[in-house]
Amino acid sequence: MSATSGSAPAPPFPQTPQFWVLMVNALGLGVFGACVALLFMGLIGLGDEWYSVSDPGWFGGQWWWLAVTAAAGVVVGLLRRWTHLPDKIPSLIDDLEHGQVDGRSVPGVVVVSAASLIGGASLGPEQALGAMGGGAAQWIARRRRLNDEDSQVNTRAGFAGAYGGLFSSTLIVVMLILEVSRPGGQRMAKTLAATIVSSSVSFAIYFVVAGAFFLDAYAVPAFNFEDWQLLAGLGLGLFAAVVVTLLGVVMKLAARTFGRLRVPAIVRPVIGGLVFGVVGVILPLTMFTGSDQLKTVLQTGETLGAGLLAALVIAKIITFAVCEASGFVGGPIFPALFVGGTAGVFVHQVFPDIPLGLAFTCMLAAVPGALVSAPFALVLLAGFMSQLGALQTAPVLIAVITAFLAVESVKYVAATRRRSNPQTSRQTNQ
Fold it and tell me: Structurally, how many domains does the chain consist of?
């Protein structure tokens, strides 16, 4: 038998035509993602035309806001009906984990999310942007008849293109997608290359037009690193886990409450709009995504007081849960950043010996990091937004991983109890 007989070994995947098809797709998805991100962020900026806060304290809002938020609920309800958007749509995390987007729901997600965010809902823009980027990528994958593995890689490159400009850092975007999707083997290397290309192109275009959206967004007072801050990071992480657990409980209660309402589906967003509108009148900083509102919290935290800061954290959790349960559409990352950052300012108010920069950045990263199971991406995000030094990131990482592990342990215990007592689980879900 000849030594050369038999099938030749497969070449490394970078030496295959299929790999370079993915790279070309990533280039195009980066351009597309930057364009739709610029358009969408400009569109939802229309909400700034009616929302203005001169007093961030108690009852600093205007009662006429209720007309706007209720009208937003009407528009959301009608758009959901006209676009045939189902009551439950996959979350951003689900889409990233599975590497696929339901193309039929993309138009509905985009228009409903735009109406939600213009109307002041306590949600983020990342759900709609991800749907557009991932949906376009999946359409390309079908047209080019990519296999399942390459289709998932292509879809995640679409997400990276949509987020490259929004998060102002290729490193953050790539880490976020890899942590949430957790691709293995050869798929990991393909995803890494495709998301770097796509997010880099997107960031380059977005930066030229609109500048950096997130970098240096939250300037915190500089503080010197001391070894006790590592232990403080542990405590802040546990506090963040309590906040995330509370958020999960409130979301379940809100979903159960709205699910039991015997009203037409179109009425639920109106009720939700009235609820977060009333809360917004009482505590105006709970409105919208929370990114600009968090700047106000950071700048005026000393005058707001610990009581108001605690109320803002709880109220933002409630409004986010109500928006999600009543039919508004948006992402969880931006509201979680507000909750975490505000909780950090609260910690500094209660314990002044903990530097504001330490408390703020630890909580800013730990709450969303535990919520979306992307701890390292959120450490990077917090560091870049506040321009921490290398030593100062150590307690932030400890806080994030502590919160992540604590929340996952709670999920594990809850899942174990459900498996051991399925009857109780069924009664709880009813």
Answer: 2
